[in-house]
Specification:
Number of strands: 11
Strand content: 25-35%
Number of domains: 2
Shape: globular
CATH topology of the largest domain: Nucleotidyltransferase, domain 5
Oligomer: single chain
CATH superfamily of the largest domain: ATPase, nucleotide binding domain
Helix content: 10-25%
CATH class of the largest domain: Alpha Beta
Number of helices: 5
Length: 226
């Protein structure tokens, strides 16, 4: 199967084409969150490089955040327009899951922290299970004072935020955590792979709505993913 992955939840967007488990091409879209103007030419470039056309696509995976709500909506709108044109399934993929995928070989547990503004932080912990990133600490949003007690000890802490973690927050994390010094952005390759796995699953529901993940910053709560 040919899968297309798209994620525009952060400043650096990504778009990838995969064939089953093989990555064919992946492009980054560094457009200061102006992803709408770059997605179509990036897709056309990727298809040409892979020797494919839009009709060759079997499914599309799109990042649904949390992250920049504007960026997430742009990605979802683009993906839905493409689905309407080619008539193929669309699957929503948590963008923090796609971030953790990039460091799956660096630690047993990868903790992803993203600034949710208004004093809140998104947090989730993952383990690689051989096929996908498995949640070991649920996607939630916490006030900055409450977050450190929820970060899994011994985990690798990553974030797509260019400014990284504040020193106030970093100093309060468990001592055995390792903090990735550079921003880590979502992997569109992962979104494409997850789309293929989802479509092949007996539980796949083609009518399931794809909408952004939204959690209210500043109030601890679990994300509703479906």
């Amino acid at each position: 199967m040919i899968g297309l992955g798209i994620d525009t939840s952060t400043k650096v967007g990504t778009l990838a084409l995969v064939r089953d488990e093989e990555l064919l091409v992946e492009h980054t879209i560094d457009a200061e969150l102006d992803h709408s103007a770059r997605l179509l030419p990036t897709l056309e470039s990727a298809l040409a490089k892979a020797g494919l056309s839009r009709t060759d696509l079997d499914c599309i995976g799109v990042g649904i955040g949390p992250g920049s709500l504007t960026g997430v909506r742009v990605g979802i709108a683009f993906a839905k327009g493409l689905v309407f044109a080619v008539g193929k399934p669309l699957i929503g993929v948590c963008s923090l899951e796609a971030i953790a995928y990039r460091r799956r070989d660096s630690a047993e547990i990868v903790s992803v922290i993203v600034d949710a503004k208004l004093g809140g932080y998104y947090y989730v912990g993952y383990m690689w299970n051989g096929q996908g990133m498995e949640e070991v600490s649920p996607l939630s949003v916490f006030a900055v004072q409450e977050l450190p007690e929820h970060v899994l000890p011994g985990s690798l802490v990553v974030s797509p935020d260019e400014s990284g973690l504040s020193s106030e927050l970093a100093d309060r994390l468990p001592e055995d955590c390792r903090i990735e010094p550079s921003p880590v952005f979502p992997s569109a390759e992962y979104s494409a792979h997850r789309a293929i796995i989802e479509v092949r699953s007996e539980a796949f529901d083609p009518k399931k709505m794809v909408e952004p993940i939204y959690l209210r910053p500043g109030v601890p709560q679990k994300a509703k993913l479906g």
